[in-house]
Design a protein that fits this description.
This protein is of the alpha+beta class. The chain folds into 2 domains: 234 residues, Neutral Protease, domain 2, CATH 1.10.390.10; 171 residues, tricorn interacting facor f3 domain (Immunoglobulin-like), CATH 2.60.40.1730. 24% of the residues lie in helices and 29% in strands. The chain has 9 helices and 22 strands. The chain has an 8-stranded mixed sheet, with no helix packed on it.
């Protein structure tokens, strides 16, 4: 969610910012009742006879979702054929993962808590599989350095991830509309099998078939639209390795705009709306030019925006695609900044949420200053300080779901960026940001990676600065 729009609602509960997840797009193991969410179980076909061991269910230790992710291989590309029935919100799918084995494996594990599996193949051979604790364990071996493909067929109605006092995540649907929303590792695994960890970015091809008159939008670039009997298949592709994707299905009208340097921009909006209902779109070229000057070239070959009404509010940004239900300028520019931070460069873990959310929130300040004057931007910084008070959770202390979307993540994260700019100077600050997005494009970066990049560019040791801002409770004072 845009911080500016949030401040316009002083009575909104802290948890309302949770929906900003990529707001504020990514990708994921399913939550079990012993983790941070629940999901109704769905049975598998009789061929699911293999019983996974505890070793098969080990994740990669994310601070919030430790069971997410699977060791032993590097996913290179996912190819998902998704046939969506928007009236029943059901899904019939064949999902393939092309990967490289980093070590010899007796079994290969993916994160998946979605509908009933009807078959699994590895390199074209039918194999046994088992499911437990949000994992799909494939009972087939691969040798170190072997390139392999796993194909999973499944069908049913994915269940959203529901947590008390928080908006739903994963597969969110109502008759006639579907959207996906990923905030944490495990969210995308509710509707597709994958290595759902930001430590393993991959390329994606999504072939989404829907009946007429529905339209399917997704992350990446639309490379083909295939006519089917009573429907269409929309083929979306992301060639840069990324850590999250999204899908939205609805009755949309579409329009095409052109951004700076000829950037194609496609807009999908409800059939009862018009582009004129979204005045902030007039600022898209200016916003993109503004961000390019500060963060570097736009990282994808195209940009898409879907006006999604099936949403709790705000926006959700994934590589090349932004879903919006709030189209205020502050929301749009925030989500555009996520195309760099979170889109082209992922975060190594949820411990780095301050970086993912702090920079786009600070971009709101910069854009406000550009549009309304320097004093308006400074007033927003001061309002952040008032909201925070004298101390907060240290941004690097991430232990639970609420930490992912609290004031320390968004507001203190933005103040880190503001204070860093004052500390090193404006030119060095933006030079460091451009260097960071160039160095880690198509990768996932940690807080340590960010700090090392800044120090290298500015030629200074900033240990004390970052320790005060990220590891201690008192909120430091910034230079004016």
């Amino acid at each position: 969610m845009s911080i500016v729009s949030w401040f316009l609602q002083p009575g909104v509960a802290q948890t309302s910012r949770l929906c900003a997840g990529g707001i504020i797009v990514l990708l994921v193991i399913a939550c079990t009742p012993t983790e941070e969410g629940t999901r109704s179980a769905q049975s598998d076909a009789p061929s699911a006879t293999f019983v996974p061991s505890e070793d098969d269910l080990v994740g990669l230790g994310d601070p919030i979702v430790p069971s997410a992710g699977n060791p032993g291989y590097d996913a290179r590309r996912y190819v998902w054929d998704l046939e969506v029935n928007p009236e029943s919100n059901s899904l019939t799918a064949k999902a393939s993962m092309h990967a490289l084995a980093l070590e010899s494996l007796d079994r290969v594990t993916l994160d998946f808590s979605g509908p009933r599996v009807t078959g699994v193949r590895i390199n074209g051979e039918v194999v046994e599989y088992g499911r437990a604790d949000g994992k799909l364990v494939v009972n087939g071996s691969v040798a170190e350095s072997e390139q392999f493909e796993i194909e999973v067929e499944y069908a049913g109605t994915p269940e959203p991830i529901r947590v008390p006092a928080s908006p739903p995540r994963g597969w969110i649907a109502e008759p006639g509309a579907v959207r996906t929303f990923s905030l944490l590792p495990g969210d995308a695994a509710g509707w597709a099998p994958l290595n759902d960890t930001p430590l393993d970015p991959a390329a994606y091809t999504l072939r989404i078939t829907v009946p007429d008159p529905f339209v399917a939008t997704a992350s990446g670039t639309l490379v083909e639209t295939l006519e089917r009997e009573n429907g269409k298949t929309f083929v979306w592709r992301v060639d840069l390795p990324v850590t999250e994707v999204t899908v939205a299905v609805g009755e949309y009208r579409t329009d095409r705009l052109t951004g700076p340097n000829g950037l194609p921009i496609d807009i999908a909006f409800p059939t009862d709306a018009t582009v004129a209902d979204i005045p902030s779109l007039k600022q898209l070229p200016n916003m993109l030019a503004f961000l390019r000057a500060r963060l570097g070239p736009f990282p994808f070959p195209s940009l898409g925006l879907t006006w999604v009404r099936l949403f709790g509010g705000g926006g959700d940004s994934t590589p090349g695609r932004i879903n919006l239900s709030d189209v205020q300028e502050s929301v749009v520019v925030h989500e555009l900044a996520h195309q760099w931070m979170g889109g082209s460069v992922g975060n190594a873990s949820t411990q780095d949420a301050w970086l993912r959310e702090g920079l786009p929130t600070y971009v709101e300040v910069l854009w406000t200053a550009r549009r309304e004057g320097t004093q308006a931007g400074q007033s927003l910084i001061e309002s952040f300080r008032r909201q925070l008070g004298p101390s907060t959770r240290p941004p690097l202390d991430v232990d639970e779901l609420a930490d992912r979307s609290d004031d320390a993540t968004f507001l203190r994260g933005a103040l880190v960026m503001h204070s860093l700019k004052l500390e090193v100077g404006e030119r060095a600050f933006f030079r460091a940001l451009k260097g960071f997005f160039t160095s880690y494009r198509g990768k996932s970066a940690s807080t340590k990676d960010f700090i090392e990049t800044v120090e290298r560019v500015v030629g200074r040791d900033l240990t004390n600065f970052f320790a005060a801002w990220l590891s201690r409770e008192p909120v430091p004072q910034s230079r004016n």
